[in-house]
Amino acid sequence: MLIAGPTASGKSRAALELAERIGGVVINADSMQVYREAPVLTAQPSKEDQARVPHRLYGHVSAREAYSVGRYQADAQQAFDEARAAGRVAVFAGGTGLYFAALTEGLSEMPPVPAPIRAEARARLDAIGVAALHAELDPADASRLRPSDPQRVLRAYEILRATGRPLAHWQATKGKPVLDGTRVAKFVLDLDRAALRERIRARFEAMLDQGALDEAAALEDLDPALPAAKILGLREISRLPRHEAVRAATIATGQFAKRQSTWFRNRMADWNWLDVQDFGNIIPAMLQEVT
């Protein structure tokens, strides 16, 4: 079972209720919910919810690690195999398109980058900045990557230095997907943009009351080149008064949700799309597909 959708669309709730009904285990498919230092900011399922059914790959990585989609694929494969061995149905839920691609389409086989080259690449990024490093990429990568994205620019530069070939070359060949040969029910939760924006605002307000400020303070010195630096709301909480942080984070998160929805419409058009305005219809519709 795969449940995708933009942030705040109700994926975690749907996965929990579905897993309870079918004897499942909920497996994370969201790139920010892997970080243990930010359970509130990344809207991870609560301890109470995680006690109701098994949950995997939530908060299992430090925010100070450079966690990648390749590592996620390996972790997801292990979690999926363990679920099958236990006789449980795997219910993957999240909003990261590349994670679902790893599950259903497979990923490119990336060559290893030696530690000295990683250190050299990082030092060069620190010395000249992301825009200048972007200018040193192979044209095949530079045309696809934004000069303002340090994480992806650094990765492309590392691969180029380690192999002499652009990242685009290695991405052209895909390996075996996690769910290869498995019958899979695929769902995308869809919600009107205005309603989704209000959910985002209300959720961020609740996060501030539940410990998000403490999480942001603990991550104040986080390296901006790390993937966890993209946790939604982290920068706004760290820099702005509460009312301004809520407004800015709501806008930024809404823009992110729009990009998620664009990915889903482009890459998941053949999945089962469910309107979540009436949540009561979601679980019956899902059960109908798997029974």
Distance linking N and C termini: 12 Å
Spatial sequence of strands, sheet with the most strands: 3-2-4-1-5-6
Order of helices and strands: EHEHEHEHHHHHHEHHHHEH
Q: What is the helix content?
A: 40-55%
What share of the residues does DSSP label as strand, in percent?
Answer: 5-15%
Quickly give the structural class. alpha/beta
Brief digest:
The chain is α/β, with parallel strands linked by helices.
Key traits:
alpha/beta; 6-stranded parallel β-sheet; 9% strand; 291 residues; 6 strands
What's the arrangement of secondary structure elements?
Blueprint: E1 2-4, H1 11-22, E2 24-28, H2 47-52, E3 55-56, H3 69-85, E4 89-94, H4 97-104, H5 115-128, H6 130-135, H7 139-142, H8 150-163, H9 167-171, E5 186-190, H10 193-209, H11 212-218, H12 234-239, H13 242-267, E6 272-275, H14 282-290
Parallel strand pairs: 1-4, 1-5, 2-3, 2-4, 5-6
Structure description:
This protein has 291 residues and is α/β, with parallel strands linked by helices. Helix content is 52%, strand content 9%. It is built from 14 helices and 6 strands. It has helices spanning 11-22, 47-52, 69-85, 97-104, 115-128, 130-135, 139-142, 150-163, 167-171, 193-209, 212-218, 234-239, 242-267, 282-290; strands at residues 2-4, 24-28, 55-56, 89-94, 186-190, 272-275. The protein has a 6-stranded parallel beta sheet with strand order 3-2-4-1-5-6, with helices on both faces. It is globular, with a radius of gyration of 19 Å. The model has no long low-confidence stretch (mean pLDDT 94).
